[in-house]
Structures are given as structure tokens and as C-alpha cells.
Design a protein that fits this description.
Belongs to the peptidase A1 family. Keywords: Aspartyl protease, Disulfide bond, Hydrolase, Protease, Signal. InterPro entries: Aspartic_peptidase_A1, Aspartic_peptidase_AS, Pepsin-like_dom, PEPTIDASE_A1, Peptidase_aspartic_dom_sf. This protein has 435 residues and is mainly beta. The protein is built from eight helices and 27 strands. The strands form four sheets. Strands 2-3-8-4-7-6 form a six-stranded mixed barrel. The protein has a five-stranded mixed β-sheet with strand order 12-15-24-16-23, sandwiched between helices. It has a four-stranded antiparallel β-sheet with strand order 14-13-19-20. A hairpin with a 2-residue loop joins strand 6 and strand 7. It is globular. Bound molecules: 2-acetamido-2-deoxy-beta-D-glucopyranose (NAG) (7 copies). The site of one 2-acetamido-2-deoxy-beta-D-glucopyranose has 2 residues, from loops.
Length: 435
């Protein structure tokens, strides 16, 4: 059983936040861009991340990870006058943090840093330190400060972690992380809780569209995140909602899993829906069952590898919603490589390696999420996640913002970005050297 604490910091800040919010009933749609970071795309890293995250829920050391194949980031401004950053969105962690100007460590060398002394609204919180460990054993250490956040048209006072020691391995273009976890563990003040307590949004929900990247062309994928509603121009049909399990935000029961024509048992299974991770993490028996259906799959001590092209699709069912991971996304194209077996790709369906623990909860990341429109709804005490098929012109009785024409809504065009060039070689050397 995990014990969740309502945060004393959040309670203390609520009054200040109420008066500091510049607008209420706001809807703000912000473009997402994608970066690649192949450094830790492997089952062992994912496993360690999983256990650290799970164990981090009831501790004061929340865990985060951006060490994945693909990172989805958004622009965030902090301070007065605003300083601009690019942060990874992560529905699997609670804190939002940025490297500070006095940061030491290789992780902050190339990132844009926040200067608290240059902001009239930056108020360091005493005893507000945090220490987040990463899958690689590296981490970030810093102090909390209350500060003005500007996210598109949304402006509010929240709590940011200012990192003073950063040994995380980031791409240079990622300056920090935006935790979109909902409940606060000890000492954390997640921005969703702040937005809710300050009634800043029209609806307490975020809608996310993660655009699919094309590994081979390094085109500029992105997507869009809407705070306060959903963007009907990004999906079709209705949104199907599933209630989260009581003690875990953004975790829902899995109702079905089909690979090709084969059903795999999901009795009693729950899954964390996590924008901050690339792949899927399932028990070894399930990974084996999935790959038994995939022609040519090869098991290694680094997990399953599959031919880079194929036709066996994977379908997850949540409630009555069925979302398909096409074969081309199960076979992580950025890992295409030559092995003794020929041209193989790492499979996105990973299982814990290098650990003896069994997993209690599956992890469903971007390999699934980029195939659907997803909604994280914290409007009532029972949080819920909604899914819809990608498309245009969906329906919603709640939180509809279209593509930005609604009053109070702001939409940015998705910037044309440079996706970090992916060196297949570095993936291979990490996969086989780091473990
Ligand atoms: C920072 O950028 C420089 C120049 O691109 C590069 O040589 C260096 O390795 C980078 N440092 C880190 C820690 O990534
Ligand atoms: C670094 O900055 C933070 C917040 O701006 C501050 O709390 C901390 O004392 C500073 N550390 C050093 C060594 O200056
Ligand atoms: C941060 O956490 C790690 C792992 O728990 C620990 O080894 C380290 O001493 C901590 N550092 C600080 C400054 O608390
Ligand atoms: C959406 O929901 C409405 C109301 O329940 C229903 O009438 C309609 O058929 C649904 N549309 C689709 C595409 O499922
Ligand atoms: C899967 O089912 C479809 C429809 O029933 C059938 O056409 C197809 O041959 C089946 N595929 C396999 C590999 O059994
Ligand atoms: C798998 O999905 C792809 C892409 O949606 C589709 O083209 C293909 O027909 C599907 N394969 C099967 C066997 O349904
Ligand atoms: C719309 O929002 C209200 C209040 O947040 C909620 O009670 C209702 O169930 C929502 N309706 C739908 C269809 O999601």
C-alpha cells in the first residue's frame, strides 16, 4: 500500500496562489516538440526507472527520467521578467525543475539556466530541498522556490525546483522537466495541484497529442498540450474515460491486450500512463507471450529484438477504448541495427532485466500514447484518463477548445524544430556496453 500525503507546502501556498493567478478559466494550448536522446534506451534503464518511480511515490525523493529515445518538451517561462526554457513533459513525476544559474555538474553545462536573483518574483523556500535520482544513478539536487510560471496564456504562481547540482544526461536543448503527476508526495507541489486549487483552468484536465516522429528522416515531430480542455481538432469520435485506481494518479486498469489475433491475459493488471517514458514495461511472462506471436522475434539478455518491419499490430484496451500500436512503432525504428540475426530493432515491449523484483504495475509510454489522443482529467477526486482515436473533429461536452479560436484560448503553431540527429551507433554501444 502506498501512503500519499497532501503537501504542507501546497496548503501553505494556496492563499498566495489564489491572488497571484492572473486569469481564471483559462485554456492554454502549447506546442510540443520532440527531441531524441538515445543514451538510456534499454530495458535495464527502464526497469530501474520503474522501481525508483514506484518507490518514490511515498518518499520525499520523487524520481524523474528524461533518458529515453524520444523526449517531448514544451516551452515554459519562469520569473519576472520571464526567463524562457524548454522542459520535458512527464505525467509520471511530480516536480517541475530547471537548472539554476549557480548549478554545477555536466548536466547543466549546456542548458539554459534560471537566475533567481534576476526575478522579482522568485522566493526561495527554506527547507524546500529536493533530490531526484535518475535511472543511471545520476541525479539532480536543488531547492524549491515559489515563482511565476507562464505557460502559453496561463500565468500562475507555482513551485519550481531550482537545480544546484545536475549530473543528469540531457540533450542540450532540454533545460528541465515539467512534472504532470497529480498527487503531491511529501514536500512536492505539482503544478496540476496548484492549477486546481487556484481554479486557473476552465476544466481541470489536460489534453495531449504526441506527434509521431520519423526516425529515418529526423523530421520535426511535435504535438500539442492543452491545459484546461481538449482540442477537438486533434481527435475523432468520443473520448472514452477510465477511472484511475484509487491510490495512483494516472494509473488505470488494463482491459485487454491483443497481439495479432492472440489475446494475452490482463486479469488484475493496472498500467501507469506516462508521457515521460518512451516504451512499455510489462512482466517477463507477458513480454514473452507478446513476442511469441511476432514472427522472427529474438530474445537476448538485453530483452526482445524484432525485425524492423512486420505486420503484427498490438492493441491495448482501456475500458471500452481500443488503441493500436502499429508494428512499426513496436519495433523502435531508431534502434535499427545489424545483429548476428540480421537487421533488428529493439522491441518497445520491454520487461524488467537485471532486477529480481516482479512488477505490480505496467508502464505504458509514448509507444502507445502517440497513437491516440489522451486526456488527463483531475476535475474530481477520482482522477481519470480519457482516450480517443487521432483525427479531426471529435466531440466533447467538456473542455472543448477547437484549435484556439475560443475566447481565452491561445494556440501556438508547432515550431519547426531540429530533432537531434540520432546516431545509430551510439544506441548500439549503449545497449551493449552499458548493461
Ligand atoms: C556541451 O556542448 C559542447 C559543444 O557542443 C560539447 O562539446 C559538450 O560535450 C557538451 N557538454 C555536455 C555535458 O553535454
Ligand atoms: C544557488 O541558488 C539557490 C537558489 O537560487 C540558492 O538557494 C543557493 O543557496 C545557491 N547556492 C549557491 C552555492 O550559491
Ligand atoms: C541524494 O540521494 C542519493 C540517493 O538516495 C544519496 O546518495 C545522496 O546522498 C543524496 N544527496 C543529498 C545532497 O541529499
Ligand atoms: C458519441 O457518444 C454519443 C453519446 O453517447 C453517441 O450518440 C455517439 O454515437 C458517439 N459517437 C461515436 C463516434 O461513437
Ligand atoms: C487473424 O484474423 C483475421 C480475421 O479473422 C484472419 O484473416 C487472419 O488470417 C488471422 N491472422 C492470423 C495470423 O491468424
Ligand atoms: C497493422 O497496422 C497497420 C497500420 O495501421 C495497417 O496498415 C496494417 O494493415 C495492420 N496489420 C494488420 C494485420 O491488421
Ligand atoms: C463534464 O464535466 C463535469 C464537471 O467537471 C462532469 O461532472 C461531467 O461528467 C463531464 N461530462 C463528461 C461527458 O465528461
Amino acid at each position: 500500500m502506498y501512503i500519499l500525503h497532501s503537501s504542507p507546502l501546497l496548503l501553505a501556498l494556496s492563499a498566495a496562489v489564489m491572488t497571484a493567478v492572473s486569469a481564471v478559466n483559462t485554456v492554454s494550448t502549447v506546442p510540443i516538440k520532440t527531441l531524441r536522446n538515445p543514451k538510456h534506451l534499454n530495458a535495464n534503464s527502464l526497469t530501474r526507472r520503474y522501481f525508483q518511480k514506484r518507490d518514490g511515490v511515498s518518499s520525499s525523493s520523487p524520481l524523474t527520467n528524461i533518458e529515453n529515445d524520444v523526449i517531448y518538451t514544451v516551452p515554459l517561462q519562469l520569473g519576472t521578467p520571464p526567463q524562457s526554457f524548454n522542459v520535458a513533459i512527464d505525467t509520471g513525476s511530480p516536480i517541475t525543475w530547471i537548472s539554476s544559474s549557480n548549478c554545477t555538474g555536466s548536466g547543466c553545462d549546456n542548458s539554459t539556466r534560471f537566475d533567481c536573483s534576476a526575478s522579482s518574483t522568485c522566493k526561495p523556500i527554506s527547507n524546500g530541498g529536493f533530490n531526484a535520482s535518475y535511472v543511471s544513478g545520476q541525479g539532480v539536487i536543488g531547492n524549491y522556490a515559489s515563482e511565476t510560471f507562464t505557460l502559453g496564456s496561463l500565468k500562475f504562481t507555482g513551485v519550481a525546483g531550482l537545480v544546484t547540482e545536475n549530473d543528469a544526461q540531457f540533450p542540450a536543448d532540454v533545460d528541465g522537466l515539467m512534472g504532470l503527476w497529480y498527487y503531491a508526495a511529501e514536500g512536492d507541489v505539482p503544478i496540476l495541484n496548484v492549477l486546481q486549487s487556484s481554479a486557473a483552468l476552465v476544466n481541470n484536465m489536460i489534453g495531449i497529442w504526441l506527434e509521431t516522429s520519423t526516425a529515418t528522416t529526423n523530421t520535426a515531430p511535435g504535438g500539442e498540450i492543452t491545459f484546461g480542455g481538449v482540442d477537438t481538432s486533434r481527435y475523432s469520435g468520443n473520448i472514452t474515460y477510465v477511472d484511475c485506481v484509487s491510490d495512483r494518479p494516472w494509473t488505470i486498469p488494463v482491459s485487454g491486450l491483443t497481439v495479432g489475433n492472440t489475446s494475452i491475459s490482463v486479469t488484475g493488471v493496472t498500467a501507469a500512463i506516462d508521457t515521460g517514458t518512451t516504451a512499455l514495461l510489462v512482466p517477463e511472462t507477458v513480454a514473452n507471450a507478446i513476442h511469441a506471436v511476432i514472427p522472427g522475434a529474438v530474445n537476448t539478455d538485453q530483452g526482445w529484438f524484432i525485425p524492423c518491419s512486420g505486420n503484427t499490430n498490438t492493441t491495448f484496451q482501456f475500458g471500452t477504448f481500443k488503441g493500436v500500436i502499429p508494428y512499426s512503432m513496436l519495433a523502435i525504428q531508431s534502434t535499427a541495427q545489424n545483429t548476428d540475426q540480421g537487421n533488428f530493432c529493439l522491441s518497445a515491449a520491454m520487461y524488467p532485466t537485471g532486477e529480481t523484483e516482479t512488477i505490480e504495475q505496467w508502464l505504458v509510454g509514448d509507444a502507445f500514447l502517440k497513437n491516440v489522443y489522451s486526456v488527463f482529467d483531475f476535475s474530481s477526486s477520482t482522477t481519470r484518463i480519457g482516450f480517443a482515436q487521432l483525427g479531426s473533429g471529435g466531440t466533447s461536452s467538456n473542455g472543448t477548445v477547437g484549435s484556439g479560436s475560443t475566447a481565452n484560448a491561445a494556440t501556438w503553431t508547432i515550431p519547426s524544430t531540429t530533432v537531434m540527429a540520432l546516431q545509430a551507433l551510439s544506441v548500439v554501444s549503449i545497449l551493449f556496453a552499458a548493461l
